[in-house]
Amino acid sequence: MRVSPNRWRFLQQALEDLDKSFRAIGTRLYVLHGKPEEIFPELLKEWNVKLLTFESDIEPYACKRDSSVMSIAKKFGVKVLQSVSHTLYNPEIIIKKNLGKAPLTYQKFTTVVDSIGLPPKPVDAPNALPKEAQPEDLAAAKYNVPTLAEFGLDVKSLHPTKFPGGETEGLARLAEKLSDKAWVCKFEKPNTSPNSLEPSTTVLSPYLKFGCVSARLFYYKVKDVISKAPHSKPPTSLIGQLFWREFYYTVASVTPNFHKMEGNPVCCQVPWDSNSEHLDAWAFGRTGYPFIDAIMRQLRQEGWIHHLARHAVACFLTRGDLWISWEEGQGVFEELLLDADWALNAGNWMWLSASAFFHQFFRVYSPVAFGKKTDKFGDYIKKYVPELGKYPSEYIYEPWNAPKSLQERAGCVIGVDYPKRIVIHENVYKNNIQRMSLAYKNNKQNTETTNSNPAGSSKSKTGKGGSTKRKPEAEVAASGIKKFLKKN
């Protein structure tokens, strides 16, 4: 399992907080150990279960697991109630409303959602349970929340908790952020800072991912704030951010191999390189580009980085500089992010690598200039790449340009105390643009050949209600490439 110590800790804290909340109303959380298909037959019989309820999930592993548990419940005559509550809307309803296909653009998605209407409102938590519903074994230790040691974690290796897990913390964070009504109304994601020393966004994504904060509660709380004043609109507003989450969940729910390139009907097939040294340098913040390295080190230490910071490092790994598959980056994020989410992680990596959804691959993030826009003195770099802490601001983003004498005085010689650049951005990114252009043309030709010869082809299918049509990426991008290269 790709789960970092930070995310294990967040989960463990979330479970402890949930157990505390349950005990306050006369019940408790029961944590069971083992595989569901092995535990449930014994559990249903021992506890004389009549009704089993759970939240639906679109992830392939979860679908397989839930199907197995439902089969077991049926054998024991247990009624099963499966609810859609992790998202604002039921993905199946959105797809049905879109004539059986997943909407493959955000604009199309929001049009469909608008036709459905407002999502269901959240339900208040109970304040108490009737005595007859209270369990008798509240003190049974075998059902306690596991400790970090039981998860096999070395607590000493963990950095201090920056974002504690649990509903209590999540709701407090939600209330704090929404208390600044002017900030909520003016919020636009592109105008927030990827490299501020403290987060410039809500950092509610881990709490949404783990169900500590209800997406519907978040939605209606924001709705209440913005209803009283002029406000920003989707896709950049806070409501817009929730809709991005819904968009990826919807597409992922009916797209086979959504987390892979091969066999994924919405993904451009790109001949990425394989370079384990470059991948490790990127993953551990040793690329020689301080802005990129600071982001990856923050991710490894804290488990969270700003959305635009994710853009920068994802572009750098894939089409921008290293030409390494987005699947590799997806794996690193899957391990390290507190908010690692199967659908969002895959969807965003396809977007940033220009493999799906976004096709202007010639727009490349500079690993130098992008960070300077919001942190010209490099305070963020000095925090997460402390070996460069004594570098003056004019060299903090490009330490390789600093005179050797200055490097020595700063106590950080490039190539000795901090790595040299693993690639020269100015040399590689234009070549990568041409490689991406060729991949788009080849994909277009392959798609046209497949569509013109259906009898001799095996068309990709997206499953129930899926779409096999691919956007003409080559045509979308071609008009912009020449203009971009002329300017650069």
UniProtKB/TrEMBL annotation:
Pfam families: DNA_photolyase, FAD_binding_7. Residues 445-455 have a biased composition (Polar residues). Belongs to the DNA photolyase class-1 family. Binds 1 FAD per subunit. GO terms for molecular function: deoxyribodipyrimidine photo-lyase activity; DNA binding; FAD binding. PROSITE patterns: PHR_CRY_ALPHA_BETA. Its cofactor is FAD. InterPro entries: Crypto/Photolyase_FAD-like_sf (IPR036134), Crypto/Photolyase_N_sf (IPR036155), Cryptochr/Photolyase_FAD-bd (IPR005101), Cryptochrome/DNA_photolyase_1 (IPR002081), DNA_photolyase_N (IPR006050), Rossmann-like_a/b/a_fold (IPR014729). The lineage of its organism: Eukaryota, Metazoa, Ecdysozoa, Arthropoda, Hexapoda. FAD binds at residues 201-205, 241-248, 339-341. One of its GO terms (biological process) is entrainment of circadian clock by photoperiod. The record marks W272, W326, W349 as: Electron transfer via tryptophanyl radical. The keyword Flavoprotein applies. This is Photolyase/cryptochrome alpha/beta domain-containing protein. Residues 445-488 are annotated as: Disordered.
